[in-house]
Amino acid sequence: MSEAAAAPKRSLGVRILVNAMSGAGNRVATTAIGFLLTPFIISELGLSQYGLWAVVGSLAGYLGLLDFGLGGAFVKFISEYVERDDRRSARQVVIFGMIFYAAVGLVLAAPLLYFAPQIVSVFKMPPDQYATAATLLRVFFGLLIVAMIAGVPSMVVVSMQRMDLSSLNNFLGYLGYAASTVIFLKLHYGLWAVVIGQAAQILVTGSIQAFTAHRLFGPLWHNPLRIERVIVHRLFTFGGWTQLNSLVSIINLDAGRFIAAGIVSVASVGLYEIASKLAFFAKLFPSYFLDALVPAAAGADARNDHDTLDRMYAAGTRYSVFATFACVGFVVGGADPMVQVWLGKSYPYVSAIVFWLGLGYAVNSLTGVGTTILRASGKPHFETYYSVLAMLANVAATIPLARAYGIVGVAIGTAIGWIAGTLYFLYVYHQVRRAPWWQSIGSPILRLTCANVVAAFGYYALLHVPAVQHCFENRFLGSLVLGIVALAYFAAFAGLSILFGVWTQDGAQIAGRLTELRAGFGSRLGLTRS
After folding, report:
1. Which of 110, 131, 255, 257 is the most exposed place for a label (fewest CB within 10 A)?
2. 121: pLDDT strictly greater than 90
3. Quick check: 366 and 316 in contact, CB under 8 A?
4. In angstroms, what CA-CA distances link 497 with 123, 159, 455, 475?
5. Within a 10 A sphere around the Cβ of 457, how many other Cβ atoms?
6. Residue-level pLDDT at 249
7. What is the pLDDT of residue 505?
8. Structural domain containing residue 504
C-alpha cells in the first residue's frame, strides 16, 4: 500500500503525535550530545574562539535569507500537491528548489568573497582574529548553500508526513558532526575542526534524506525546462512573505548576539551563547510539534476543512504551551546547577540571561500553532506583521538596556520584543479566525501558568537547599541529583495541570488515541513507495 493511501486510515491526531514525538526525540538526543560536546569544544578552543564561531556562524545564517523565502514555501506546496495526488507538480517544486539554491550561491559568492573582511570588522575582537573571522564567514557560506541544496529532498519526506524518518536521518547526520568534530579537535585543527564536523553532517544527512525521499515518493527528477510558470509564481508570492518572516525571526533570535558584540564585547557573546543554549531548549523542543503540524494543516486547508483547523488550534496550543512551560521552568529553575554540572564551573550572569530569555519564549509559545495554521492556509502576512513588531520592540529595547545593564540588558530587551509581538498576534489571530479566545486558549493557559509557577518555584527551592547544592560540586553526583529533582518537577507540573483542569476537554479522547497509536505505529516503521 502506498504512503498516500495508508495515511488517511490513521487519524490526523495520531500522525501529528508520531511526527512530533519523533522530532522531539531527535532533538533530545542531539541536544544531549551537544551538551556533552560543548564543554569539550570550549576547553579546546577557549571562550573567545567559541564566541567567534558562534557570531560568524549566526552571521552566515543571515545569508540564507536571500532565498526569497522559498524555503518556507516548499513544504507548504509539496504537502498540498501530495494531498491532491499531483506528484508531477510536487516534483517541479523539488527540482526548482535545488536549482534556485544553486543559483543563489553563484550570485552571492563573488560579493561575499570580496566584502567578508568589511562585514566582520564591525565586531569587537582581537586584531589577529579578523582574518580568521573573514575566512570562516566565506567557508560557512559555502556550507550553507550546499546544505540548502541537499536539504530539499528532506522537505519531501516531511511533506509525506514522515517526520519520524526525517528525524532519524537528521540524528545520524548529527552523529557524523559530533564524531568528526571530536576527532579533528584532538588532532589540533582548532576552529576548523568544527567546520569539518559541519561539512560531514551535511554530507551524511543529505545523502540519507535523498535516499529516503526516493523510496517514499518515487523519482524526484523533473525536466527543469518544463517547470510551469504558475508554480513558480505561487512559490514566489508565498515566499515573499515568508522571506520577511524568516528575516525578522532570525533578528529576534540573534540580535542579542550582535548587539552584545558591538556594545559589550565579543567575549560576552560566549556567556550569552551558553545561556541561550539552555533557554533555547524551551523553544526548540515544542517547535517539533509545530513542524509536525505544517503538512497536516496544509492538507486540511487543501480540503477546506476549517473545523479541523479550529480544533487543531485550540488543542495544539494547549499541548505546545504545556511543553514550552515545562521546559522553561526546567531551565530557569535549574540554570545555576545545570551550568555547574554541564561545564564544571559557574559563569556570571548566565542564570539571569536564562530567566529573561525563558520568560520571552514562554509567552511567545502562545503564537506557535496560530502562525503555523495561518502559514499553511496561505496567509503568512499576518505572521509578518507580528514578527516585525516584535523585532522593532526587541531592537529598540535591547540597545539602551545593553548600555545600561550589559549582557543581562540584552536578554531583557529580547524578552520585551517577544512579549510585545505575542500580544499583538493573539489579537489579530482571533479577529481573523473569529475564534473565542477565552474558551479556546485563555482559560487553559491561565491554568497552565498557575501550575507551572507553583511547580517551578518548588523545583528552584529544592535545588537551592544547601545540602543539595553541595552535590553539584561533583559533576556525576550533581547530574544524578539534578535528574531526580527534574523528574519530580515534571511530575508535579503534569499533576498540577490535571488538578487545575487544563485537560478537561481532552480526557475523553486520550484513551482512544493511545489505542489507535499502538495499532498504527507498526505500519509506520516500513518504507513504502507509490
Report:
1. 110
2. no
3. no
4. 46, 33, 10, 32
5. 12
6. 77
7. 58
8. 3-523
Has residue 291 been placed in a domain?
yes
Q: Return d(Cα 216, Cα 527) in angstroms, integer.
A: 6
The owner of cell 573582511 is 117
The CA-CA-CA angle for residues 149, 151, 154, to 5°, reads 140
The answer for residues whose C-beta is within 8 angstroms of residue 404's C-beta and 6 or more apart is: none
Backbone angles phi, psi at 349, to 5 degrees: 75, -10
Amino acid at 467: A
- Which grid coordinates belong to 506? 481532552
Q: How many domains does the chain have?
A: 1
| C-alpha cell of residue 180 | 568528526
Tens of pLDDT, residues 291-314: 778 777 877 877 778 788 888 888
Residue 529 forms part of a structural domain: no
Q: How buried is residue 9: exposed, middle or buried, by Cβ count under 10 Å (0-12/13-18/19+)?
A: exposed
Cβ proximity of 27 and 282 under 8 Å: no
Q: Is there a domain that residue 274 lies in?
A: yes
Residue 84 to residue 4: CA distance in whole angstroms: 10
pLDDT at position 9 over 60: no
pLDDT, tens digit, 9 for 90 and up, residues 427-448 = 988 888 777 788 778 888 999 9
pLDDT-derived band at 3, boundaries 50, 70, 90: very low
pLDDT tier at 46 (50, 70, 90 boundaries)?
Answer: confident
- Of 252, 476, 282, 285, give the one whose Cα is nearest residue 386: 252
- H helices of 11-129, where? 12-45, 47-63, 70-83, 87-120
Can you say whether residue 188 is alpha, beta or left, with left for phi > 0 and alpha for psi between -120 and 50 degrees?
Answer: left
Backbone angles phi, psi at 93, to 5 degrees: -60, -45
Domain-embedded: residue 192: yes
DSSP 506: T
What confidence tens digit (pLDDT) does each residue in 162-180 have? Answer: 888 999 999 999 999 999 9
